[in-house]
Amino acid sequence: MTDHPPPPPPRYCADPRRGGRFEDCSPLCALLSVLFLLVATGYLIWRATTFNQEHLVFSWLVYAAEVYGVLVAAVHIFIMWRLTQREAPEPEAGRTVDVFVTCFNEPVSMLRRTLMLARDMDYPHETWLLDDGNRPEMRELARSLGVWYLCRTSNEHAKAGNLNHALERTGGELIALFDADHAPGRDFLVRTLGYFRDPAVAFVQTPQEFFNLDSFQHRLRRRTRRLWTEQSLFFKVIQRGKDYWNAAFFCGTCAVVRRSALEEIGGFATGTVTEDLHTSLRLHKAGYRSVYHAQALAFGIAPAQVTPFLVQRVRWGQGAMQVLRQEDVLFTPRLSAAQKLNYLASMTTYFDGWQKGLFWLAPAIVLLTGWLPIDASGWVFLCWFVPYFVLSICVFEELSRGYGSWLYAEQYNFARFAAFIRATLGLVFGPVRFNVTDKSFSPRRRVLLQVLPQALLLAFNLLAIVWALYRSSQQPYLPPYALYFNLAWVGTNLLCGWQLTRHFLSTEAHHHRSDYRFDMPLPLVLLPEAGAAETPPQEALVIENVSPGGCRVVGLLPPALAQGRSVRAAVMLPSGLQPVRLVPVAGPQADGEGAQQTASVRCRLEWPDTRARNQMELMLYGNDLQWQLQELNERGTTPTDWLGGRFLAPDHGARAHWGVCDVQVGSAQGPHTLLGLLPLQEQAPRRLILFEPVAEGASLKLSLRTRAGWRRVTARAGHVVPLRSTAGTFYACTLEQARQAVALGTAAPSQEEPPCPPAILTA
User: Fold this and answer.
1) Is residue 643 a part of any domain in this protein?
2) End position of a domain, from candidates 458, 488, 510
């Protein structure tokens, strides 16, 4: 199988005024955008002549929603036309940096790993735990990890007040900010501090990335390894477009802020529940510049279920309405026209809820009542509407550079519309209370209340179809084109709602663990029990679905595990072998078929000391290892890709299972042996995971034992990519000219084929 050719590289242009290069939209994107604006303008002019005088209010509402949609599309074309492409400057030595980790009621385990990773970042700094919950266990946690601790007796102004309280008691020139769940990588400060060479830069924002890929806002297709995230469009594209106009805003975490700039505006903005947006607006009004570094350098927890997802969006929307009420955005002379447009787009995006809600109601209203919002011939309507509609989708897909996915976006528009409507009411009503996003699981009653508007709307659309089919069978009450068009519209709405409902039910059903399981393989070897007379067979296994507290053991299971008894073992991490006890929590299961069939058993991990557990946490969190090991791709197909023949995502087949292999590396200094991980189902494997680097072009001999017998593969080392974590580095090596030298069989290995990989025993 060969993958389709990669997309053409983006067109970059130099722009010294904005600190580097920018990515211009493609010629096709420019053509589609101009064509869309022309067609949309013509469509709206024509639509203004088609109001149904018998149902004028309904006609005006539908037309207003269409006008709003075109205006939003035009603003997005402006914002996403050019995207900054920044290279991180080298940081200056000698800067003083305070790292603030804020918390209120989050669990100790979450804060523990965030503080460890924040403490271990490269570049000298001091780490502070800002505890707004004033909990003794947080004070003890800070002491045990060697970080500073601050708390206060009141929670005035919520998170903003907590940060301002710390500002008064610390003195670092720069302040790095992380929420309780966002664990940074080792190079976070190294990648961001260099931008502060420019004294006009007030803050550097990085993307908010999330490691729990089974959350409500993630959609993962394992066969194509395509990952779509509800926030990808914002952090991968929109923020870069805002950055071009010096309008990227501070998102509250994964950022570095200049203390002197904060002091000039009176500290973090208070009086709203979105202190991040509010603070960045005031900094831009004060004449400061912002930088968006579009590389994920910290990883947090996305809301696992629909309830915290929607509650979070309501809070963001209510905060945006508060900022819109309190700050003069439109008429202030202290913002450029482009900055005003960018901020207004961010704050008014929550009015989308009214438009989307109307578009979900309108066709059902037509089918139930017979009211038509358009008084025009069916063919004339289609001649105007179809080009406008198709162009709007193409422009969205092309401008989003593959991160948008119109189909997924519409599903989440349906999920959010009621939350957005509720949020916009904050423009009229008074202040709201700041609520921390819940990372735990919601009671069923609360979940049902959150999705009640969506359920009622789906039932309303279904009722409309049933009624329309029944009434039209009795006698015609709508023109045929209107009946068929609205039936198709309602059917599309129901299909979209059903797809979202399936995902919603899936996320509600399978979240039963306290810790997320990372889908990544690690080698493991059994160790003898203390005082045991016999040594267990030296069999190398693989653990998958890993968390600090549990895993799934895969491979030729030893009798003890198969019989449900705990065993001593050592797991191979980039920092070396770490001892652990495996305690089975379920019986063995069979995975795969035929020669690739393996057995697996779910186990609890019991660590002998905190140091060993710390190494596992430092390896799992604060990085994108699981993305790279699974070869996940967040970019989808754009119209340019379709025209270039890249219209099918490669099918990678079933989920990969890995085996531990012995890697003999030939070199001028003589052969030596390493430990590796190899996909089991690939006869001619194309990838190898190592714990030590090899030279490109080196000859490799791989020995792997499977259920069907021994397997030998010869290959040459291709490109070697380091996969870094705070605990150490993996190496992903592509295999060239790979071929199976010995077929699968049950014959005993020769002297040259050791019965188990010696590398794991001597590492």
Assistant:
1) no
2) 510
Q: Which two tokens stand for residue 255?
A: 């950022």
| 506, 531: one domain | no
Same domain, 406 and 501: yes
Q: Are residues 436 and 583 in the same domain?
A: no
Residues in the chain: 763
Do 559 and 676 lie in one domain? The reply is no
The Cα 123–Cα 221 span in angstroms is: 38
pLDDT in tens, 532-550: 655 555 567 899 999 999 9
593: domain CATH number is 2.40.10.220
Q: Are residues 100 and 15 in the same domain?
A: no
User: What pLDDT band is residue 711 in, cutting at 50, 70 and 90?
Assistant: confident
Give the whole-angstrom CA distance, residue 731 versus residue 743.
27
Q: Which of 98, 132, 352, 519 is catalytic?
A: 132
| pLDDT 10s digits, 204-231 | 999 999 999 999 999 988 777 889 999 9
Indicate the pairing of strand 298-300 with strand 209-210: parallel
Give yes or no: residues 188 and 316 share one domain: yes
Q: How many domains, in total, are found in the chain?
A: 4
Provide the pLDDT confidence category of residue 496 given band limits of 50, 70 and 90: very high
Measure Cα distances from 694 to 516, 520, 526, 619 in Å. 32, 21, 27, 21
Residue 609 bears catalytic tag: no
Rounded-to-integer distance, Cα 685 and Cα 665, Å: 17
CATH, residue 303: 3.90.550.10
Q: Quickly state the pLDDT bin for 137 (edges 50, 70, 90).
A: very high
Q: CB-based burial of residue 178 (10 Å sphere; 0-12 exposed, 13-18 middle, 19+ buried)?
A: buried
- CA distance readout (Å), 310 to 412, 420, 533: 10, 9, 58
CA distance 679 to 677: 7
Domain that holds residue 70: 11-82+352-510
Mean pLDDT of the chain: 87
| Long-range CB contact pairs, 263-272, < 8 A, 24+ | 263/167, 267/160, 267/163, 267/164, 267/167, 268/160, 268/163, 268/164, 268/167, 269/160, 270/157, 270/160, 270/161, 270/164, 271/157, 271/322, 271/326, 271/431, 272/319, 272/322, 272/323, 272/326
Q: What residues are paired with 583 via a beta bridge?
A: 604
Say if residue 64 is in the same domain as residue 103: no
pLDDT digits (tens, 9 = 90+) for 241-264: 999 999 999 999 999 999 999 999
Tell which residue, 417, 445, 313, has the closest CA to residue 359. Answer: 417
pLDDT above 70 for 742: no
Token reading at 74: 């035009």
DSSP of 719-761 = EEEEEEETTEEEEEEEEEEEEEEEEEE-SPP-TTS-SS-HHHH
Name 726's Cβ contacts closer than 8 Å, sequence gap at least 6. Answer: 117, 120, 185, 186, 618, 619, 621, 622, 623
Instruction: Give Cα separations from 755 to 158, 161, 533, 561, 704 (angstroms).
Output: 60, 62, 21, 20, 9
Domain-terminating residue out of 572, 601, 624: 624
Catalytic choice (131, 187, 243, 276) = 276
Q: Is residue 636 part of a domain?
A: no
Same domain, 98 and 207: yes
Q: Is residue 531 part of a domain?
A: yes
CA pair distance 132, 178, nearest whole angstrom: 14
Answer yes or no: 276 catalytic.
Answer: yes
The mean per-residue pLDDT over the stretch 457-461 comes to 95
**Domain assignment present for 296:** yes
What is the DSSP pairing of strand 218-221 with strand 298-300?
unpaired
Which residue, chain included where needed, has tokens 């770490």?
A: 578
Highest mean pLDDT among 491-495, 554-558, 662-666: 491-495
> Which H, E and C letters describe 299-356, residue by residue?
EECCCCCHHHHHHHHHHHHHHHHHHHHHCCCCCCCCCCHHHHHHHHHHHHHHHHHHHH
